[in-house]
Give the backbone structure.
Amino acid sequence: MPFDIIAKPATPDSNLPDYDAVCAGFSWEAARSELDGLPGGGLNIAHEAVDRHVAAGRGSVVALRWLGKQGDVRDFSYADLAAATGRFADALTRLGIGRGDRVFSLAGRLPELYIAALGTLKCGAVFSPLFSAFGPEPVRARIERGSGRVLVTTPALYRRKVAGWRHEVGSLDHVILIAGPDDELPEGTLNFAALLDAGDPQFPAAATKPEDMALLHFTSGTTGLPKGAIHVHEAVVAHHITGRYALDLRPGDIFWCTADPGWVTGTSYGIIAPLTNGATMIVDEAEFDADRWYATLQDRKVTVWYTAPTAIRMLMKAGDDLPKKYDLSALRFMSSVGEPLNPEAVEWSQRVLGRPFHDNWWQTETGGIMIANYASMDVKPGSMGRSLPGIEAAIVQRREDGGVEPVEAPMTLGELALKKGWPSMFRGYLNDEERYAKCFAGDWYLTGDLAMRDADGYFWFVGRADDVIKSAGHLIGPFEVESALMEHPAVAEVAVIGKPDPIVGETVKAFVALKPGFEPSEALRRELQGHARTRLGPAVAPKEIDFRKNLPKTRSGKIMRRLLKAREFGLPEGDISTLESDEA
Ligand code: ATP
Ligand code: MG
């Protein structure tokens, strides 16, 4: 089934009305000049995200609207956030925390987590968020690898995940607990609220330099051991401008990024970009629930929404009738990141929600969105869109001498590469210079993802280099096969792997989870195989299809094909610290 291009109006209401014109006139210096900076050439993310707006008289605008699990709502204006983050920064400073020190967080999406993140940056220290559902070992391993000096968490998480090993990690000087007024604090811990009370609300942002380390983000662990990516304060220039161009963010927007700050999306776009752009950000403490999500979009009048393919597939699974019960008319722009977005999902959103999801692509390492479908641009379902102004993206092939060569011919398969030098590019992998060096060839950063670019400059994701299947001389991208199977009405989720085969090298195997109302059967298996053969041809269609209740995913919602492979071949599972559902 071909997917029609979703055309946009000729005179679009968009921050990027004319892509080519904006690209031609773009410079990072000009982008930087949209921000304040600090006297003496300093730059601090917290100042740009919060204090700048207060200084400009926008202090009363709501910066953070927090939705508690039980239905409670708390608003924090930019002025409130400026004061609270000042207090936290002052408290850290008094504890002897300063430039370069690592402050970790391990908490659900509580307001204090946001205050801690921005307060840490304000004090000049490095913020490293962990996902609250990690087990004790993954928490310890990351804090140890990152030489964490401070951990901000809750009493319950502390008892379950930290207390057992705390004193074995020598770097960890302070544990700060987000506690209720009646909570008794374990010995050797500090009370977040008490520290805030004693802190100075006027504490000014530390005069960090653009190249000072600001954020330490661990990757999702989809392909192996999570890597610690180092980001600097200069990254805020990219957060800001990509928020404006790729997410179409404007002052006055009600913006909802559904990602948890434990992942880079939840920080770059769940904290920093909406604030630098003067929006009101919605933070929902609760986990996914289709009804609650549609109600949130309606009741909070969300104008810009940023979510992920796994969540979109869950919404699709919840049915087409559910969204009809809600008024989604405030929504101006919807976007998605984290995994390939199947064309079926884009078509579904256009048909059922009345507007398309705009896919965009980036990585922990890139710090910000690099390729996107813009509000003003026709959407080609299945494509990640075009590179951001200021970003030179190319498809490259490796030469024998180890260098790389950009390929110009449209729709040629190669590795997606980015010309180095954008502000939010990672500056290193924690304690692993060799690995960092290996990511570059000459001026190019090599992403490890395979893609193609069409004649209009739209990029098409093919698969991660590790996941591409080599069968009888063909290179088969798992995404193409998965997207074809997704079109079948019975399929809720699918992952495709290559299975070693003595004759053809590898054969294609698919793991399929079904929508409610469908049961695994031999007849359905044959029907899916027939559907795939019609769509893809016999050489590319899966030879084998297994039904699963669920597919193994990272906690950030990415399907872990490496785990499906390991299990299929009886190999060691490797690092599974980020694994979420495991009902294979
Ligand atoms: P690890 O590097 O630890 O294996 P990870 O690569 O999943 O984990 P992230 O940095 O969170 O960690 O994810 C970035 C990757 O996610 C990209 O390299 C790409 O493979 C995938 N990705 C993100 N957005 C998209 C998208 N829009 N389309 C296709 N793939 C995407
Ligand atoms: Mg990666």
User: Anything to note?
Assistant: The pocket of adenosine-5'-triphosphate (ligand 1) is lined by residues 219-224, 226-227, 337-341, 359-361, 363-364, 384, 447, 449, 461, 464, 556, 558 (CB under 6 Å).
